[in-house]
Amino acid sequence: MTLANVARPLEELNVEGRRVLLRLDLNVPLNQGVITDDNRIEAALPTIRGLRQRGAKVIICSHLGRPKGQRVPNLSLDPVAFRLSELLEDEVIFSHDIVGDDVEFLSRDVPKGGVMVIENLRFHPGETANDADFSAKLARLGDVYVNDAFGAVHRAHASVVGVLDHFSEFAAGPLILHEVEALRTLLKGPKRPFVGILGGAKVSDKIGVLESLLHRVDSLIIGGAMAYTFLKAQGVPVGDSLVEEDRVKLAARLLERCAERSLKVFLPTDHVVASAPDSADRHVSHRIEAGQKGFDIGPESVALFRDVINNSSTVFWNGPMGLFEVAAFSDGTKGIAEAVAAADAYTVVGGGDSAAAIRKFGLQDKVSHLSTGGGASLEFIEGKDLPGLKALKLRST
Ligand code: ADP
Ligand code: MG
After folding, report:
1. For the stretch 245-269, what's the b/e string if a residue is b when 16 or more beta carbons lie within 10 angstroms of its beta carbon?
2. What confidence tens digit (pLDDT) does each residue in 273-294 have?
3. 359, 375, 384, 390: which one is catalytic?
4. Pick the CATH number of 3-176 from 3.40.470.10, 3.30.1950.10, 3.40.50.300, 3.40.50.1260
């Protein structure tokens, strides 16, 4: 079968009185069983409500954390199901079983417009193994299948890939379609100039994205801890800042390739330095002395980067500019978030921590698209084939 640009929309699926196995990304952050951020549940509400209104029996499945095929009590989806029932202001049935006769029976008993959540898929080893037997059993919980878990489409797991062997009627949900459309805009004919902003902890995490952006953007801004590996490659002293020694050569090569393409690369020129995150010797400096580490980009760098962002028509940002979780080192990330929010441009922010940062500053509604995918968004930008999209007969690029 050929892959289409657009999967069959959910609206065309006949769901009335039928069981819809709905794969969601309800992988919310938990602290001792308490949900600390319910954005992912909120984001799924329109999909769930739409299906209920159309008389579907909604059977929801998701993963949560990395329980590695075992029942881990504090990674149960039970609190998520509870929160969902609060948000829906209605009953939500919870099944401790993931597959098997009992849960299959329960699923058939769900009333029209009713909602059931099954336990964390990853409690079963068959999920991440994309096991055929587990996929077949899971498929027995639905008459039709809908995937709206963009955050999981880069995984070839049973609930995302294997299960589709058993459905002739399936669809991609609105969250997936929206993500694909927004990210595709960056890959296909973005308005120029196009600036890529990369930050975060490690160069090694972002090599694929960097390589991909190299062919697409007009300028590249590099901040965060990963900037120190690049500065070191340029021979700039970085003191004791986080450097991936085994990536310095690679960073130098990437900079050469940028120069060959006449692509402008902007690195921080000043830094907020300290000997440790909690030490009193914190100060702004152009130089990082031995014994000191850069924990954030300085105000001059923020101004420099802001100008580049202001003059761009497309912006993709992934990775915080500093240790933004600590207030004393959050100004750089905040400054860049504000610049991206204020830009008269198509702006996409992706990555788990970057999304958390933009929400922390209350600017989530000021960007064109806040990608919730984390790893999936980055792999999409890398131009990789995403198994979950392929299984839905949806093209990634
Ligand atoms: P994302 O999840 O958006 O892809 P990453 O996971 O790559 O982002 O990086 C985020 C992490 O990088 C944050 O926890 C942040 O504190 C850290 N970080 C960024 N810059 C620095 C720095 N200069 N020193 C220490 N940690 C940093
Ligand atoms: Mg991260």
Report:
1. eebbebbbebbeebeeeebebbbbe
2. 999 999 999 999 999 999 999 9
3. 375
4. 3.40.50.1260
